[in-house]
């Protein structure tokens, strides 16, 4: 259980901000999360005292930064229970991680007529890289549909799989609906057919325990900024057996062993996939964010967020003008809705003036919106540092919206 929420909120300086003179209510955690002081402080400390480009220096600061960067890799490895730190590649975020796989895995293993499977609820980041690959390789993208509760139609998956299927790439949790997908079922089915699986963990890593060995996924992608770390950081976990077989993604410094005009050879994992100067101080910040989460306990975080989800859903249900999108049995702390038949943008703008930050629009899931035949929703997404009192403010805000629009 999370105790002393007041103290926890003090760990996040931005939460005591005001917006338009009103105390900030931050309900846009699915878009990005706020950062605890430990993250801000360690990055500040490195920039002020130990900023030296990593891996290739002999000097004090380069050594310190390299040690911090590689410690962060170990922290990530332990957090997701990868079997080796060679399987942890630092990227710029979930988008960067998925593009890496689409490009490198796609280059080697996908050919004309082959098939990739995604789902209908994917974020654009888990659609467009595959479309680009399919266009390049004349391959085919197939789509797992979802039902109107926002749950994947698992019984349709076997008929989508064929001997041409090269990869299945699905989200662990939907950013627009909050659905927690049964990825174990998908991974089990895929592996029975010798098909590797990539999991987009952008919305899951901060909410529930992820153990990549237990899940047995082949790739797992997530962003640092959604787990209380800095922007521009992320991770691609990949099974060593796949990463070893995949060609480099980008060329440049660090990813090589020897460069000559006759023949260039490449570095070992994970460096083969980390061309150029990485965001090493960002990665150190992400490591500190993960340590913060570990100290609180991901189970405690899940419990607190579940309570907020249940409370928010119950309170919002009291409005007869509300329509929920995403009513799956298993959900993370994301509530997507339309209110009073209003354009989500109008609702969001009024809430904003009351200091309440929600997201409005398609949430980068246009095919999902198309399925519901809507142009967007209002989305409130909670983190463990949110409170029931803040949810009450959202309810008061919606009462004002209702009054304003009649
Ligand atoms: N997938 C999902 C499910 C997401 O929610 C997001 C971010 N909204 C992404 C991918 C992309 O993450 P990023 O922009 O951090 O690369």
How would you characterize this protein structure?
With 406 residues, this protein is α/β, with parallel strands linked by helices. The chain has 2 domains: 5-30 and 297-405, Aspartate Aminotransferase, domain 1; 40-295, 3-Layer(aba) Sandwich (Aspartate Aminotransferase, domain 2). It is built from 14 helices and 17 strands. The chain has helices at 5-10, 37-49, 60-80, 94-109, 128-137, 157-160, 183-192, 212-215, 240-245, 280-296, 298-317, 344-353, 366-372, 388-405; strands spanning 18-19, 22-23, 25-26, 88-91, 115-119, 140-144, 165-171, 197-200, 219-223, 234-238, 256-258, 265-266, 322-325, 334-339, 356-357, 359-361, 377-381. A 7-stranded mixed beta sheet has the order 4-10-9-8-7-5-6, with helices on both faces. Strands 13-14-17-16 form a 4-stranded antiparallel beta sheet, with helices on one face. It has a two-stranded antiparallel ribbon with strand order 1-2. Helix 3 (60-80) crosses helix 10 and helix 10 crosses helix 11. The longest helix has 21 residues, at 60-80. The chain is globular and about 75 Å long. The two termini are 41 Å apart. The model has no long low-confidence stretch (mean pLDDT 98). 4'-deoxy-4'-aminopyridoxal-5'-phosphate binds at residues 93-95, 123, 125-126, 171, 175, 200, 202-203, 223, 225, 364.
